[in-house]
Amino acid sequence: MKTEIAEILKRNQLSVTDSRTSILELFRSSKSALAHADIEKKTSEQFDRVTIYRTLQTFVEKGIVHTIPTADNSVLYALCKDNCSQGHHHDNHVHFICDDCGVTYCLEHISIPNVQVPEGFITKQTDLVMSGQCDKCNA
Amino acid sequence: MKTEIAEILKRNQLSVTDSRTSILELFRSSKSALAHADIEKKTSEQFDRVTIYRTLQTFVEKGIVHTIPTADNSVLYALCKDNCSQGHHHDNHVHFICDDCGVTYCLEHISIPNVQVPEGFITKQTDLVMSGQCDKCNA
DNA sequence: AACACTTTGCAACTTTGTTGCAAAATAAAC
DNA sequence: GTTTATTTTGCAACAAAGTTGCAAAGTGTT
Ligand SMILES: [Mn+2]
Ligand SMILES: [Mn+2]
Ligand SMILES: [Zn+2]
Ligand SMILES: [Zn+2]
Predict the structure, then answer these.
(1) Which of A116, B35, B71, B110 has the most CB atoms less than 10 A away?
(2) Which residue range is the domain that position A30 belongs to?
(3) pLDDT digits (tens, 9 = 90+) for B85-115
(4) What is the CATH number of the domain that holds A99?
(5) CA angle (B112, B116, B118) in 5-degree steps
(6) Which pLDDT score, from 0 to 100, does residue B121 have?
(7) Which of B74, B107, B128 sits opposite A126 (nearest CB)?
(8) How many structural domains is chain A composed of?
């Protein structure tokens, strides 16, 4: 729904533009996390690289998407499904990257367990990323 | 000890060279994880960028150092203290990155808890990275 | 429709990482 | 210790990834 996407943008005090609409639409229709390069390809090179960088940055700031750290050091982005807001993410779920098909899953219903840290340490964020084989590739 | 470092290299079937010796020495004398750029600076630009890339890659392959994924997408490297071997890492510990001083700690004695994955998924690796304030910065 | 404000695309640039190859260094053989 | 075979290094050239300034285009408001 086009209007629904515009709603999300407006709710976050963002003006409704082609690039933002298309990229947000892409995220919503995609089952897995996306890398910058994926977005570039899947929008059929419709937007400038710089615009995509800036759009993703804005979305992360607004709490519309969150980033996923990976072992091979590529940045991945996925929709926030929890109620994240401006500068305040709380996507406390586990991520799984399939080594075979490369798909990254947000395991929304699996939350990151509490981890005890040494005296004096204060934890602000915890990322838990697993990798291996997904159910589709594990034939 | 110079000889000790040479020993480690030989044990891993690596020829003893200046760059490998210096970089390994640097890791052993450093309490925190190092980024490529750190190594470049701390060896006072003694070695070519390419050599550092190749040395790190070799060390990771041999199980001498392991990588740490980070939220801001920079690769960090730290000494393996467990008995990792050629192509078989088992550094099952938590990492902590201080947002204030930037230091990354290997919390060797805190192991990553088991996490249940959905039916059909097979986990091969789990990374758990926390960030916040370390004991030194939490005055 | 006119205006103020925001976003975009382009160009130019920096930073990061990769590859091929000849010269230098290391390890093994003599 | 010298010669030889093998590995490693540095350089150059390149590719990919990310950043910045700025004019032109687009958006939202009156
Ligand atoms: Mn997620
Ligand atoms: Mn570690
Ligand atoms: Zn898969
Ligand atoms: Zn600190």
Answers:
(1) B110
(2) 2-132
(3) 676 777 889 999 999 998 999 999 999 999 9
(4) 1.10.10.10
(5) 140
(6) 97
(7) B128
(8) 1
